[in-house]
Amino acid sequence: xxxxxxxxxxxxxxxxxxxxxxxxxxxxxxxxxxxxxxxxxxxxxxxxxxxxxxxxxxxxxxxxxxxxxxxxxxxxxxxxxxxxxxxxxxxxxxxxxxxxxxxxxxxxxxxxxxxxxxxxxxxxxxxxxxxxxxxxxxxxxxxxxxxxxxxxxxxxxxxxxxxxxxxxxxxxxxxxxxxxxxxxxxxxxxxxxxxxxxxxxxxxxxxxxxxxxxxxxxxxxxxxxxxxxxxxxxxxxxxxxxxxxxx
Length: 247
Known about the structure:
CATH superfamily of the largest domain: 2-enoyl-CoA Hydratase, Chain A, domain 1
InterPro entries: ClpP/crotonase-like_dom_sf, Enoyl-CoA_hydra/iso, Enoyl-CoA_hydra_C, Mitochondrial_ECH-domain
Organism: Tauraco erythrolophus (Red-crested turaco)
GO molecular function: hydro-lyase activity
Largest sheet: 5 strands, parallel
CATH class of the largest domain: Alpha Beta
Helix content: 40-55%
CATH topology of the largest domain: 2-enoyl-CoA Hydratase, Chain A, domain 1
Function: May play a role in fatty acid biosynthesis and insulin sensitivity.
Number of strands: 9
Strand content: 5-15%
Main location: mitochondrion
């Protein structure tokens, strides 16, 4: 069990992030996440739509404001949880990702997409501006690209998404599995404790100014050397052998 697959599996509903879907996604992300064996989580989906975003039936006026708040709150919690997890999370996208579905892709650490994938925040067209997806979008795309998506609702092609940094790789559909597994296997070769430290530190320093970021990461490098795996890795390198990670 070196990597876990989480598959959005409600293709009839275009894998909409209903309250129950968000709750089970949170459960799956947190499940046994501290296990020594778990190194990578891959999020993929069944059907032609990766994820269509919120289930609009849950956002109609039949449901009260309290329910609406609950939906957006757990959504924000899931999106931020992805970056707080101690293992890398890869989005494996084959199809359309819209609104909160696009937010999900933007929130993952790495995203591999097939050539037919598309990414959009079309909420503006139905009178519900994609303000929460914009948080993730504005942090992974240049401002003017994000705003064009948000103001027009027009989709980015996979190639455009790659060019602007929303995804890390674009491959033909028949190579999607292979490419995602290649990245996962590479990650699995590293020490879990070192990766966890590195991921947490990366997101922390991104919000800091340059001097603070260097002060903080300098201390982290020193701490990293005190980890058993830090010493083992350096010794193995010097001795020209493969490291034996403690976990």
